């Protein structure tokens, strides 16, 4: 892989950005499709599909990822990263006994049997196959790369999303009205286990190099929290069933981030920032027309509170340019990682030069 800037300088850049002293947005760009200088691996790296194929050993999995990295060049604020999203969205469900399925190369979790809510209980199981597989993969990754590649925290999932895996989304919505006490009991059970899994997986990361599936680098503990189930809740129900857990989880971290997914969650921004004390909001408008809209007012509302912002949709950079024109700086804003084919290196360099991120 080609990474001329190096992790020490890149981490310094991110820390300045977190402190509000960088004076520009973060622009991570990865060039893909370069010719590798190493032999082909036994298996092609296909992220979740490869993780779910248990015939692929942890060493073979990491070797395949190593080959994929060797076909990349990391420009601007990007860096070599072993993205923990290979485990599928909400892998704690698998740790708690959910079945692991595959569809179109993506991992999905489902309950083996739908039980009445009062019969559902969650316990820590040290010998869980999927937990042990992740630990083995992360151990091999650390052995293979040392500190040359940042090892990401797996996608642990949101507490209510994990509960919905076992109860079913429609059933859980009914439970909020008919069995609120049971829902809160299970939220507390999963929350405690979430904290335990996070703390147990933390030592498998590189010391002083923390990231997760969101890709934002941090010297200290960071995680992109989420609760996609909350899209269907009113602000009052969000406060009753989700906000307390998110606040406690954010307090576990040094930098708490939230994956705000869909227009139904916009109503929660004030609570996420003022009560839960989130340090960053990542906005995902969802499929269809929403992705095409101008979200300038939403972004401004987030930035006006001093909260950091990750923009996931802005392919033509119009929104970013509009924010810079409005605030006079792109401080506290980051783009999601932008992938360009190697043939577009000049285009990538022009973008980096435009924002002072060479």
Strand percentage: 5-15%
Query: Structural class, from helix and strand content?
Result: alpha/beta
The shape, in one word, is globular
Task: Summarize the amount of helix as a percent range.
Answer: 40-55%
Spatial strand arrangement across the major sheet: 7-8-9-10-11
What is the tally of beta strands?
Answer: 12
Q: Count the helices. How many?
A: 13
What is the ordering of alpha helices and beta strands? HEHHEEHEEHEHHHEHEHEHEHEEH
- Rounded to an integer in angstroms, the radius of gyration calculated over CA atoms is 20 Å
* The CATH C-level class name of the domain at 37-71 and 79-206: Alpha Beta
> pLDDT average, as an integer?
95
Summarize the structure.
With 358 residues, this protein is an alpha/beta fold.
Structure report:
It is a single chain. α10 (269-274) links the parallel β8 (255-261) and β9. The chain is 41% helix and 14% strand. 40% of the residues are buried. With 358 residues, it is an alpha/beta fold. The model has no long low-confidence stretch (mean pLDDT 95). The longest helix has 22 residues, at 180-201.
Name some characteristics of this structure.
358 residues, alpha/beta, TIM Barrel
Give a topology summary.
Layout lengths: L6 H13 L8 E5 L15 H5 L5 H12 L3 E4 L4 E2 L9 H4 L3 E5 L2 E5 L18 H17 L4 E2 L7 H9 L1 H10 L1 H22 L20 E4 L9 H18 L2 E7 L7 H6 L5 E5 L11 H9 L3 E4 L6 H10 L5 E3 L2 E4 L3 H10 L4
Parallel strand pairs: 1-12, 3-6, 7-8, 8-9, 9-10, 10-11
Antiparallel strand pairs: 1-2, 4-5
Helix pairs in contact: 3-5, 6-7, 6-8, 7-8, 8-9
């Amino acid at each position: 892989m080609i990474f001329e800037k190096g992790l020490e300088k890149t981490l310094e850049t991110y820390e300045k950005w977190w402190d509000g002293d960088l004076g520009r947005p973060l622009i991570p760009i990865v060039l893909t499709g370069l010719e590798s200088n190493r032999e082909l691996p036994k298996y092609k790296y296909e992220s979740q599909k490869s993780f779910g194929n248990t015939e692929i050993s942890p060493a073979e999995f990491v070797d395949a990822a190593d080959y994929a990295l060797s076909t990349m060049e990391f420009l601007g604020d990007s860096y070599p990263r072993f993205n923990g999203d290979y485990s599928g969205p909400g892998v704690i469900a698998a740790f708690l006994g959910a079945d692991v399925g595959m569809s179109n190369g993506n991992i999905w979790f489902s309950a083996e049997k739908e039980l009445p809510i009062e019969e559902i209980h969650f316990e820590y199981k040290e010998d869980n196959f999927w937990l042990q597989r992740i630990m083995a993969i992360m151990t091999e990754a650390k052995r293979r790369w040392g500190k040359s590649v940042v090892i990401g925290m797996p996608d642990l999932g949101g507490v209510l999303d994990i509960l919905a895996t076992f109860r079913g989304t429609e059933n859980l919505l009914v439970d909020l009205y008919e069995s609120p006490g049971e829902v809160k009991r299970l939220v507390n059970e999963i929350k405690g286990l979430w904290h335990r899994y996070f703390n147990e997986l933390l030592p498998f990361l590189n010391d002083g190099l923390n990231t997760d599936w969101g890709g934002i680098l941090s010297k200290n503990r960071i995680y992109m929290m989420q609760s996609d189930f909350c899209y269907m809740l009113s602000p009052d129900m969000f406060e009753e069933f989700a906000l307390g857990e998110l606040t406690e989880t954010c307090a576990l971290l040094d930098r708490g981030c939230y994956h705000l997914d869909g227009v139904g969650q916009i109503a929660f921004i004030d609570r996420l920032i003022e009560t839960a004390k989130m340090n960053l909001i990542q906005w995902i408008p969802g499929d269809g027309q929403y992705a095409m809209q101008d979200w300038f007012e939403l972004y401004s509302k987030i930035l006006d509170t001093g909260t950091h912002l990750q923009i996931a949709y802005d392919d033509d950079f119009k929104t970013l340019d509009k924010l810079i024109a409005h605030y006079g700086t792109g401080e506290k804003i980051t783009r999601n990682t932008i992938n360009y084919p190697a043939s577009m290196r000049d285009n990538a360099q022009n973008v980096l030069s435009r924002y002072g991120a060479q």
